[in-house]
Amino acid sequence: MEARLHIVFDPLCGWCYAASPFLRQSQTHFSERLSMVFHPGLLFPEINVIPAAYREHIISADQHIAKLSGVLFGSAYLSKVKNTASLSYYSVPAATAVSGVAALAAVGEIAADAGLGMLEKIQHAHYVDAADVNDLWLLSQLAAGLDVTAEMFKDCYAKAQADLPGQTRLAHQLLRQVGAQGFPTFILEANGQFLRLDHSAAYQDGRLFVEQIEQALVSRNTA
After folding, report:
1. Burial of 2 by CB count in 10 Å (0-12 exposed, 13-18 middle, 19+ buried)?
2. What is the C-alpha end-to-end distance of the chain, expressed in Å?
3. pLDDT digit string (tens) for 99-143?
4. Which domain of life does the UniProt lineage start with (predicted)?
C-alpha cells in the first residue's frame, strides 16, 4: 500500500523551513512507500509590506527556530530583514513553483522527490542567500537543478498558477477536516483515512516523525 503525506505549507514560513530536514529524512526512509502531496496554504496571498517595527519580531522568531531545529538563517538573510528599506513578503510565486514542479514529479516526468527538492531550494535561496524568490527567472534556475527545463517550468508554472485558487481552498479544507491551523500541517492518508501527525518533537529529532508514520501505517494495515 502506498500512503500519502499531505503537506500544508508556505515557502516563506520559518517553521516550514525548519521541517524540511525531517521531511527529507522521511522521504529517504519511505521512498516509494510514501508520496508527498504539497498543498499551498499561502501565508502571504497578497504583497505584504513588513513594517520596521515588526522586523525584530521576525528575527527573534527565526533565532528561536534555529536554536530548536538547527536550520541555518544566513547572514545575508538577516541583513536583508534588518536593513532593506522596503521589505515585503509574497507567497504566491514560490508556492506556485513548488506546486508546478511537484505536479511534474507526480506524473513521473522528473524524480519523485522533486517537489520536496524545489521547496528546499527555494527555502535555501530565501533564508540563506537572501535571494528574491518572487523572481520567476530565479525560480526557473532552481528548477533546472531538478532536471526541469525552462520550457517545462514555464508550462508547469502556468498550470499551477491557474490551479492555485482551488489548491489553496483544498489546503484550508484539509486543515478544517483534521482540526488544524497554520503551517506546516502534516496529514497522513492511508486506507482512506486521514490522520493529523504531531510533528512538534521532530524539529529536534526527525526519527520521531518517521517512527510516527511507521506506527500509523502498521495500525492501518492491521485494522
Report:
1. exposed
2. 14
3. 999 999 999 999 999 999 999 999 999 999 999 999 999 999 999
4. Bacteria
User: Which regions of 13-113 does DSSP assign to beta strands (E)?
Assistant: 34-40, 48-49, 88-89
Report the distance separating Cα 3 and Cα 9, nearest Å. Answer: 19
Query: What does pTM read for this prediction?
Result: 0.96
The neighbouring-strand residues paired with 88 are 49
- Residue 169 C-alpha cell reads as 481552498
The span from the CA of 22 to the CA of 124, in Å, is 15
Name the amino acid, one letter, at 74.
G
CA–CA distances in Å: residue 39 to residues 83, 99, 118, 187: 32, 7, 14, 11
- Round to whole Å and give the CA distance between 25 and 142: 21
Burial of 185 (0-12, 13-18, 19+ CB in 10 A): buried
**Coil vs helix vs strand at 128:** coil
